[in-house]
Automatic annotation (TrEMBL):
Keywords: Membrane, Transmembrane, Transmembrane helix. The keyword Transmembrane applies. The chain crosses the membrane at residues 27-48, 68-89. PANTHER family: AT30094P (PTHR14969:SF13), SPHINGOSINE-1-PHOSPHATE PHOSPHOHYDROLASE (PTHR14969). This is Phosphatidic acid phosphatase type 2/haloperoxidase domain-containing protein. GO terms for molecular function: sphingosine-1-phosphate phosphatase activity. Residues 74-139 form the Phosphatidic acid phosphatase type 2/haloperoxidase domain. The lineage of its organism: Eukaryota, Viridiplantae, Streptophyta, Embryophyta, Tracheophyta.
Length: 165
């Protein structure tokens, strides 16, 4: 009883030169950044952007704070829309995952396709959402951060250095 063999095929309409360029750029980026960042940091980033982590956190924040529940409903629905769209696009393009990255697979093996990146789409979604929230409620967020930082010794100078105040 061996391990199940997983076979994936590329979408036939992609021309071979495009697939070759994609594979070479992916390998170049992998070899460029692998020696710079420690593995634990890469795994931490991978897990933090995983849907199986971010969705339960979002749902628990929705249930834990009734005063902000009206803000979290679009947030949760956006998570589900992101999952559906990324899944549909992955099934359409069927770009297989690179084989040279076997150690980074604990969080991403929900499927065998890597385009588009669900992690990247969630990070862009959260960055856009926080930017829009900060634009509309910047004073409220700055007050919250300032109160939190005052209780954490040493964080005030770090936050001040990043221009949060």
């Amino acid at each position: 009883m061996g391990s199940p063999e997983i076979t994936t095929t590329s979408f036939p309409s992609f021309p071979k030169p495009l697939i070759t360029i994609d594979a070479s750029v992916s390998l170049f980026l992998h070899t460029l950044f692998k020696p710079i960042f420690p593995i634990f940091l890469l795994l931490l980033l991978e897990y933090s952007a995983d849907f199986r982590f971010s969705f339960p956190v979002s749902l628990s924040l929705f249930l834990a704070s009734p005063s902000f529940s009206s803000l979290f409903i679009p947030f949760i629905l956006s998570h589900l829309l992101d999952l559906a769209l990324i899944g549909l696009i992955k099934l359409t393009f069927r770009r297989t995952r690179p084989h040279y990255n076997p150690n980074m697979s604990p969080a991403v093996r929900a499927d065998n396709f890597s385009f588009p990146s669900g992690h990247a789409s969630r990070v862009m979604f959260l960055a856009t959402l926080f930017h829009l929230i900060f634009q509309n409620h910047g004073g409220l967020i700055s007050d919250f951060i300032l109160r939190w930082v005052k209780f954490q010794p040493g964080f005030f100078y770090l936050a001040y250095g990043f221009g949060l105040f």
